[in-house]
Amino acid sequence: MEICSHKNSIALRQSYTSPIGVFDSGLGGLTVVRELRRLLPSEEILYLGDLAHLPYGTKSTDEIRRLSTECARFLLKKKIKALVIACNSASSVAFKLLSKMLPIPVLDVISPAVETALAFTRNRRIGVIATYATIESGSYARSLEARSSDAEYFLKPCPLFVPLAEEGWLDDVVALEAARKYLAPIKKKGVDTLILGCTHYPLLEKVIAKVMGPSVRLVDSAAPTAFRLKALLQKKGLLYPRARRAPLKIFVTDHVRNFARIGESFLGEKLKTVKLVKVP
Questions:
Q1: Model pTM?
Q2: Average pLDDT, the chain
Q3: What is the number of domains present in the chain?
Q4: At what angle do helices 110-120 and 222-235 cross, to 10 degrees?
Q5: Which are the contacts of 181, defined by CB distance < 8 A and separation ≥ 6?
Q6: Using CA atoms, how far apart are residues 46 and 164, in angstroms rounded to an integer?
Q7: Helix residue spans in the chain (DSSP H)
Q8: N or C: which end of the chain has fewer CB within 10 A?
Q9: What's the rounded mean pLDDT across residues 170-180?
Q10: Nearest Cα residue to 31 out of 166, 199, 161, 169
Q11: Active site residue 4
Q12: For the segment 73-82, what is each residue's pLDDT rounded down to a tens digit?
């Protein structure tokens, strides 16, 4: 495979001036980019949204791994210095594979969220909401079990949250009723911390918080992932050293209806450089 065959030579070409690569199955990963832009404004970011194959959350493990490998290969050719898998479904089944294959640091969005949730929880009862693929992969369960022997966790797939976020139905009666139905079983368990296990879900944070109540802390993976990346780049001497507002380049494999509105709601800024690409 091409990624492996050039592993050593590619690794040698990385420097602090190289960009950071981020990919997701759609535009939800722009919530992670938003935090990266806030915390690391000097870093150039290349974002790949695989809209042609959206969503990953309903696909098989093998197919998610194949698509994730293609996204990683595309970004690696752009000489990125680190890769963020800004998709919980891809993180859950492709993170270990890509970490072994790639010559650069690879970050997922699951372990930073789990570590933050364990730091926040008081009663050691943690809820996780995510897509079917993420829940069924067992990634959150394994990550929680590996880091805590006494914490209880409760998992719930919430597949309709993704189209609600993309339609912009963030705090209306439809979103509220969906949240009430999805979250009722988790709320009954008495959790005091809830992991938003999909990068789309932060857009629905207001309605989720309304249903769960003020005593439940919501954990979004974006901020802890950004902090982890900053620490990693510092450790490896790859952090860009000078102050600037670095460019953000967005690549997509398809254009969707309301693309600009959806993308800008996730990113929190105007979409300036967007290029349609073909990822084999």
A1: 0.90
A2: 92
A3: 2
A4: 110
A5: none
A6: 26
A7: 2-5, 7-12, 30-39, 61-76, 88-101, 110-120, 132-137, 139-147, 161-167, 173-188, 205-212, 222-235, 259-267
A8: C
A9: 95
A10: 199
A11: no
A12: 999 999 999 9
Pair 96, 6 in one domain: yes
Residue 130 clears pLDDT 50, i.e. is over it: yes
Q: What burial letters (b/e) apply to 145-184, b meaning 16+ CB within 10 Å? A: eeebeebebbbbbbbebbebbbeebeeeeebbebbeebbe
Residue 78 has what pLDDT?
96
Q: Is 158 a catalytic residue?
A: no
Pairing label, strands 20-24, 45-49? parallel
| Mean pLDDT score, 160-181 | 92
Query: Which amino acid is it at 234?
Result: Q
Contacts of 5 (CB under 8 A, 6+ apart): none
Owning domain of residue 114: 110-220
Catalytic one of 4, 71, 158, 198: 198
Among positive and negative, which fits the CA dihedral 52, 30, 205, 226?
positive
SS3 167: helix
Q: What's the CATH number where 205 sits?
A: 3.40.50.1860
Per annotation, catalytic residue among 4, 71, 87, 158: 87
For the record, the structure tokens of 101 come out as: 């294959």
Q: Are residues 266 and 171 in the same domain?
A: no
Give the tens place of pLDDT for each residue, 78-123. Answer: 999 999 999 999 999 999 999 999 999 999 999 999 999 999 999 9
Q: How is residue 251 written in tokens?
A: 């690549």
Same domain, 169 and 140: yes
pLDDT value of residue 168? 85
